[in-house]
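Final report, results section. Input specification for complex C-07:
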Amino acid sequence: MKIGVISDLHTDVTPLNKQILPYIVQAAEKAELNIFILAGDLSPNLLELAKILTVFTESNLNCPKLFVPGNHDIWVIEHPSVTSEKKSQAIAEICRACNFHALGTAPFVLNGIGFCGTIGWYDYSFGRKKYNISEEKYASKQMLGSVWNDLHYAKWSGTDREVAHRFEADLRRQIDSIKDSVSQIIVTTHHVPFQESVHYRGRLPWDFFSAFMGSRGLGEICLKEPLITHALFGHTHMPIRQQLGDVTAICSPVGYLREPPAQGLPSYAAERLTCLEI
Ligand SMILES: [Fe+2]
Ligand SMILES: [Fe+2]
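Structure output:
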């Protein structure tokens, strides 16, 4: 089975992020995939998100397509009274309409291979202990004049810790619900499951904001379940491929294209679409 995964298209951030979309579609079509996975951060705008999903649905990519939202997707910018839970439901409905499987709502099984997923969140477990930063300071999401934008636009009910643990529990439930009927499980999250995948610079405020990359619990779930062979994720805009125990950790982001990539958009798109054979 050939799986293609990519994340962090952020089509609304720069003109290049929009221009690269057809090249991502072409790369996915050419790869002759059996499963295509988008690991979140398409756009905070629902109409734009629907348009992107539709581009893939109307392409020659004739395989099941899975989606987990990213933090930017659940942002509530236009309608501040709407919660991120409500927006997640709206995204799941858009997925259904666009023939994408919303992985956060239920697992997906193809030929005995299980796919489980969640957006995931952060509980500050990736914060560096040496800085002695308090829970309250992390919760403020601000340091030295910089702000983590979830502060303004992510509107979950509950603290970050509660939200992170809620999504971890969702993932655990999905895994438990299919593990007796599959031979292998692929996990997809938007947030980062392993601290080993978090890039620290040894200085603030960078290392402060690294606490918003993900949660340790997501990775512990992946390492504890022997059927899980791959953990796919996004959120950090750096490509990653690491072996952590029996789990291959893969991040395949487009990221913010502020400058044209030296190799050109088609090659960049093909490089950022990770394809794996299992
Ligand atoms: Fe992103
Ligand atoms: Fe993100």
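The mean pLDDT is 97. The pocket of fe (ii) ion (ligand 2) is lined by residues 41, 70-72, 190, 235 (CB under 6 Å). This concludes the modelling results for the funded period.
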